[in-house]
């Protein structure tokens, strides 16, 4: 995930975050299906195994014995911790890889497909092309009844250098244009916004049962889907950049001595301006 300068995966085994509760609820439903003898789960940006930490308290041993877990993260220390957590859960199998998330596109050449794919608190860390590739891979790697769940914040509690925090409507537009490029023109993403104490976040779901995309896209189709996604992202990033620039100019013109809150907001906006400018360079 080469893009961020200040990113770090938070792991607190004593606290269960809403996004992890949502992911586990979906996983419970998948594992409870008596027609499934196994459930393959791909955890993109697995971090330190934040979702896995709560698996033993939310899924019984019979359900866990169905799950084959595959985690991917760029940080080898995080991967090592995730592997340690997975080994203590008596899963059907576990595999944890050190890789960039956009490398998941290469998994399309493998025969296996996944019943559940998660992408939590990660989209803001990805450069535009990497985000496009990750979403394309997520859609195409789902089994016929597979489900995709993504979650992130619209505004980060603490600014991260290089981070682009997408709004719910923006991520919906990007995912829908990806699906249209993969032969699913009627797809409408189920996207929700959540107001938390420290931030506003979004979640988005895709059920492959209702999305007739191909599971074996050609290289040309992947290139086309990537190009369409990048055009959409460029338009969104440009609008976000102009919005931030306008606010900064208004603050500068009205500057008569700043309070601490105003100083913090200016600093956050400068982070956003640099991140969006960089993202726009990468997407063009």
How would you explain this protein's 3D organization?
- With about 280 residues, this protein is α/β, with parallel strands linked by helices.
- It has 8 helices and 7 strands.
- The protein folds into 2 domains: about 20-215, Vaccinia Virus protein VP39 (Rossmann fold, 3-Layer(aba) Sandwich), CATH 3.40.50; about 235-284.
- About 45% of the residues lie in helices and about 20% in strands.
- Strands 3-2-1-4-5-7-6 form a 7-stranded mixed β-sheet, with helices on both faces.
- Helix 5 (about 130-140) links the parallel strand 4 (about 115-120) and strand 5.
- The longest helix is centred in the C-terminal third of the chain and has 35 residues, at about 220-255.
- Residues about 1-5 have low confidence and may be disordered.
Q: Mind telling me the CATH class of the largest domain?
A: Alpha Beta
Total beta-strand segments = 7
Cα shape: globular
Q: Strand order, biggest sheet? A: 3-2-1-4-5-7-6
Helix content: 40-55%
Listing every helix as H and every strand as E from the N terminus to the C terminus, the arrangement reads: HEHHEHEEHEHEEHH
* Measured distance between first and last alpha carbons: 19 Å
Tell me the structural class. Answer: alpha/beta
Defining key terms:
disordered N terminus; 284 residues; globular; 2 domains; 7 strands; seven-stranded mixed sheet
């Amino acid at each position: 995930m080469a893009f961020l300068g200040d990113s770090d995966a938070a792991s607190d085994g004593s606290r269960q975050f809403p996004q992890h509760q949502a992911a586990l609820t979906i996983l419970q439903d998948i594992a409870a299906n008596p027609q499934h003898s196994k459930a393959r789960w791909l955890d993109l940006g697995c971090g330190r195994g934040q979702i896995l930490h709560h698996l033993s308290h939310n899924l019984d041993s019979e359900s866990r014995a169905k799950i084959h877990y595959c985690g991917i993260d760029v940080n080898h220390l995080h991967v090592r911790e995730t592997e340690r957590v997975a080994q203590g859960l008596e899963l059907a199998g576990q595999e944890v890889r050190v890789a960039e998330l956009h490398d998941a596109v290469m998994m399309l050449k493998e025969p296996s497909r996944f019943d559940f794919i998660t992408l939590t608190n990660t989209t803001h860390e990805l450069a535009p092309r990497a985000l496009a590739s990750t979403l394309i891979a997520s859609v195409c790697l789902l089994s016929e009844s597979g489900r995709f769940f993504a979650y992130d914040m619209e505004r980060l509690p603490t600014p991260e250098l290089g981070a682009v925090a997408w709004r719910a409507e923006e991520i919906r537009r990007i995912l829908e244009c990806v699906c249209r490029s993969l032969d699913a023109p009627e797809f409408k993403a189920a996207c929700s916004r959540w107001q938390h104490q420290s931030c506003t976040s979004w979640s988005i779901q895709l059920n492959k049962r209702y999305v007739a995309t191909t599971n074996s896209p050609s290289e040309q189709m992947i290139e086309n889907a990537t190009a369409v996604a990048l055009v959409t992202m460029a338009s969104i990033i440009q609008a976000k950049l102009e919005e931030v620039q306008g606010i900064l100019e208004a603050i500068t013109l009205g500057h008569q001595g700043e309070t601490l809150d105003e100083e913090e907001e200016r600093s956050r906006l400068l982070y956003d301006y640099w991140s969006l400018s960089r993202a726009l360079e990468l997407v063009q």
